[in-house]
Design a protein that fits this description.
Radius of gyration: 23 Å
Strand order of the largest sheet: 1-2-3-7-8
Shape: globular
Largest sheet: 5 strands, antiparallel
Helix content: 25-40%
Distance between the termini: 31 Å
Number of helices: 17
Number of strands: 16
Strand content: 5-15%
């Protein structure tokens, strides 16, 4: 674990334990506090700010100068940077907002060719020729209100306190905290619902009927699905299940995001979380470091269940899963007492692992679209993504396109039967 990564949570929890009570359950943000901006937060929380600043949460609504500093592409044909008020996006794609607050939907005097896709390095159409106000502020800004127009600019729908997803998007307005830290601790919510307020489809959790497949706007076989689907996917996964009441405290290492508070990733003066006090199961923060959003290792080592990775370190698309899905024993000692959750060992001995395939390639296939088809991963953790094996074995990662979905179904059933038998023997 790096000093920087450890300090991110140490500073957070020192503040919480000195200035207020640690909050585990979902929180309700104070409605009457003033917003102070992420730069104000950086004065006391520089490490968290440093992790957050280059993240994708700060690249949703950029000035021309900010976009160019991130390597953003030039505006569509017929426009210069002097014509641009904001740039939407910086990783998968960029769209451009004109000085009147409307998204540019033409290029060179013709409709279309107005969205730049970074993966394919090409212009594509986005609402070609339409009059398109900028109405993405609910998720792309902090302190958003649907009323009015930002800075009095006609095409900007609503107003906001800060561009992009700042500290106060997740922690609530900080005005009271700044003036009285001890009496007004900032709010910490590790629940997936907080992320799901934007990362869900249909957009916004209230519009989605939990555990009802008919509420999905997806139909298998119609190509890549729309993005912003991560919470919707997760809610149908085993990771979303409530904490089991019969768990031991030691099980929290993998079963609850709240266990982060018990690790060396945070200050040991923090409150120790037990099964009776834990609220969250496996949520977004179990896999994604909350400020930088990178994959990370959270499970610490212990004698009964050794960790093969350093807590706090960056993870890849194998290790983020294997940190928990690993037996912790040796192949010579496959007994229930010393060997369980053996999927990691099985994968690392497989032809898939030798071929470079990761856990995510099969259990989180590239089946959704932000800019181009198959650039966003599914989060339901099922190899049968949206009712078909096409995404898992075929068109998304391209390993078995020629064999077809029927062959994939037979092979997956065979592999899963073999894996389940191995786990049962363990």
């Amino acid at each position: 674990m790096t000093t920087k990564q450890k300090n991110i949570f140490i500073l957070t929890l020192v503040t919480l334990t000195i200035f207020g009570t640690l909050l585990i359950a979902p929180v309700t943000f104070a409605e009457d506090a003033d917003y102070v901006g992420s730069e104000t937060c950086s004065m006391c929380h520089p490490v968290q700010y440093e992790a957050w600043e280059p993240s994708q949460h700060t690249g949703k609504l950029l000035t021309p100068e900010e976009s160019q500093a991130r390597g953003g592409h030039d505006p569509p044909e017929g426009y210069t940077w002097d014509d641009i008020l904001y740039v939407i996006g910086s990783k998968w794609k960029s769209r451009y907002v004109n000085l009147e607050g409307y998204i540019i939907t033409d290029a060179g005097g013709e409709p279309g060719n107005n969205q730049w896709n970074y993966a394919t390095e090409e212009w594509v159409d986005y609402h070609a020729g339409e009059v398109k106000p900028y109405s993405c502020g609910q998720c792309h800004t902090t302190g958003y209100s649907p009323e009015g127009n930002q800075d009095g600019i006609e095409g900007l729908v609503g107003t906001w306190e800060e561009r992009n997803i700042g500290c106060e998007s997740c922690h609530g307005a900080g005005g009271d905290h700044v003036t009285g830290p001890a009496a007004n601790p900032m709010q910490v919510d590790l629940g997936a619902e907080l992320c799901g307020t934007c990362h869900s489809r249909p957009k916004g959790i209230p519009e989605y009927e939990y555990n009802n497949p008919d509420s999905f706007s997806y139909v298998a076989g119609e190509g890549a699905h729309k993005h912003h689907q991560q919470y919707t996917d997760w809610n149908s996964s085993g990771h979303s299940e409530e904490l089991e009441p019969f768990l031991r405290d030691s099980c929290l290492k993998c079963k609850s995001t709240d266990n982060i508070y018990n690790t060396d990733l945070v200050d040991k003066a923090a409150k120790t979380i037990t099964v009776s006090e834990a609220y969250n199961g496996i949520t977004c923060a179990s896999c994604h470091e909350p400020h930088g959003l990178n994959l990370w290792i959270t499970r610490e080592d212990d004698e009964s269940y050794p960790s093969i990775y350093e807590p706090g370190s960056d993870a890849d698309k194998n290790s983020v899963c294997i940190q928990c899905h690993v037996g912790g024993g040796t192949p010579e000692k496959k007994t229930k007492a010393e060997w369980h959750h053996t999927q990691g060992e099985m994968h690392m001995e497989s032809i898939h692992y030798a071929s470079g395939a990761t856990c995510a390639d099969c259990h989180m296939p590239l089946d959704s679209k932000s800019a181009v088809p198959y650039d966003i991963r599914n989060h339901s953790l099922s190899v049968m993504s949206y009712g078909t094996y096409d995404y898992t074995c075929g068109q998304a990662i391209g390993c078995h396109q020629d064999q077809g979905s029927d062959w994939a179904a037979e092979m997956i059933e065979y592999i899963q039967t073999d894996v389940e038998a191995g786990i049962e023997l363990a």
